[in-house]
Amino acid sequence: MRTFMGRLAVGLSVVVLAGSSAALGQATPTKKKSDEPKRPLVFGSVQAKPRTPGTIRLAAYNAENLFDNKDDPSLSGEEDDMSSVKPEPALRGLANTIRKIDADIIGLEEIESYDALIAFRERYLKGQGYDHVVSIDVGAERGIEQSVMSRFPIVEAQVWPTLPLEGTQPALFNGKANKLAGKPLECRRSPLRVTVEVPAKKDDATSKPYRITLFVVHQKAGKGNEYWREAESVRFVQLVHEYESQHPGANVAIMGDFNDGPEAKSVRTYVDAGLTDLFASRSPGDPAMLTHASGRTIDFIFYNKALAPEIVTESAFILSTPQLDPDADWRTAPKPEGYASDHEPVVVDVKPRDE
Fold this sequence. Notes:
single chain, globular, alpha+beta, seven-stranded mixed beta sheet
């Protein structure tokens, strides 16, 4: 049976138009799938931007089923972990992407376990400096969790398994009876909160350690679950504000896979709460702003007012990685060479203020 366990590397304990044809008595044409706009073959930035001198690079990346080849007996049937083992070519593609973005701190989603992440690091990312790792089981039925790899010490980590949300499950789900009807809402996958400390500069007597706190999230997926994501967003914002009240002036970012687009209520909740969307000035449908193979923008980095002056906005980018052709069946089509994930990483540099 899976337990709510987590381990940190380096010994840290886990604390439309008017006048339609229908109005004129004419038949309304049926929109064919072939008439729908297709996502571009390539999206995101083809090249990673060069690092900004004197900065720390952050990234959020859904690694798409980073499962190892060791059987977890607590997972079976539809949730059998062995059916989700990440193929060797995709592991190499994932590592290659991580090396390209060269993030100092990277928040990851869809990680099977701490052990699976460490095994991946040891085999594919030797020498990249990710000596500090946290990945904590949150009890999700698929066995996936959020994780952080960092080149700097992680001094605090926390998750909230079975985190209660406001409200109950509705009677209907996508027009059909909801088998969970009436049950209290719970978070699908707990956020992972970590605080990373960048040591003071050894050659500068006035230098002080720099801390940044990250909430790494992976919100409820699927059409029809908008109500669930909305409830999660409200609760996650509460967690951020609770942390800010306990740590005045703390630099905070909330990032990961939000499973909704920029104009969705669940995503707007963060903006309405005073957090800034890294790509708030994006144009709808801009290929450079798409983060998922479906042609959507669903991965984000938000930051609070304390962190805002340190965000190097011109450094931000979404890295393009090989994806399936839009017409391909993702369930059966072979992945293109260099494939890593169905998501693209979101990246930005942070320049700590002088103390």
